[in-house]
């Protein structure tokens, strides 16, 4: 046997190859897409048209229910027995009578209020007239715009006729209330000359004379200052006369009766 001769070496056993991992089939991927599309289609989506349709359906349903109830009531009356209809009519009659009674009460209350209003108006009118008569009669004090006249008589030349002229001119100029000294002038006021001075309604008027007249100040002041008027006459007698308009003055003297 040669040195180079060797027994045959055993052949190596084949190594098992790894099996390839199976790739997912394309059919599995494609089967998922229709499912997702179906889910999207079933998902609720609210549009304006759907909202309007829902509201319309709601209104229509309410109208149908109302009509059904009305028909039910009509059917109830149509199918009611005679004694039931009599009872319903009696109840309606009683309600009508109560409403008529309430209406009568309201009308009575209204008439009472109107009478009270007329009575209050009449009372206020009576009070106003009483005040007017009181001012004319001189039985109540008075306030208002007017003039204040001061007459200083150093010569004692002023006579009863001069004071009467002053009163008449003031009345002609619109004087409503006049007070001379402490005497409230009235429709029957008179002046008399006496040795001690002038008397007005029996009361002594010492000089200087102070006259208060309520009325329009401008009209009365103009009337007193006309040529030939009482102011010129008094000044011609030596008296000093001042006429002062007042925005507001008070006549406090009153007549006893």
Automatic annotation (TrEMBL):
Biased composition (Acidic residues): 10-22
Keyword entries, A-Z: Coiled coil
Residues covered by region (Disordered): 1-34
UniProt GO cellular component terms: plasma membrane
Coiled coil: 89-116
UniProt family annotation: Belongs to the UPF0749 family.
Name of the protein this chain belongs to: DUF881 domain-containing protein
Organism: Actinomadura harenae
């Amino acid at each position: 046997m040669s040195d180079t001769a060797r027994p045959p070496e055993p052949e190596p056993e084949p190594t098992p190859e790894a099996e390839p991992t199976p790739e997912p089939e394309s059919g599995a991927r494609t089967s998922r897409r229709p499912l997702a599309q179906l889910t999207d289609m079933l998902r609720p989506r609210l549009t304006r048209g759907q909202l309007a349709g829902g509201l319309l359906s709601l209104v229509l349903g309410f109208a149908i229910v109302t009509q059904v109830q009305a028909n039910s009531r009509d059917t109830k009356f149509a199918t009611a027995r005679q004694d039931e209809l009599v009872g319903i009519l009696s109840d309606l009659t009683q309600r009508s009578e109560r409403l008529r009674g309430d209406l009568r009460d309201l009308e009575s209350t209204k008439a009472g209020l109107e009478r009270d209003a007329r009575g209050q108006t009449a009372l206020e009118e009576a009070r106003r007239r009483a005040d007017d008569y009181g001012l004319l009669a001189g039985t109540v004090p008075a306030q208002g715009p007017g003039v204040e006249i001061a007459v200083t008589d150093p010569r004692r030349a002023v006579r009863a006729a001069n004071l009467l002229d002053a009163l008449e001119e003031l009345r002609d100029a619109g004087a409503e209330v006049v007070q001379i000294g402490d005497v409230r002038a009235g429709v029957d006021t008179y002046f008399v000359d006496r040795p001690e001075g002038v008397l007005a309604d029996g009361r002594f008027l010492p000089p200087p004379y102070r006259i208060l007249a309520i009325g329009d100040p401008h009209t009365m002041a103009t009337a007193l200052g006309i040529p030939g008027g009482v102011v010129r006459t008094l000044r011609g007698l030596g008296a000093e006369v001042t006429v002062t308009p007042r925005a507001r003055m008070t006549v406090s003297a009153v007549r006893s009766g």
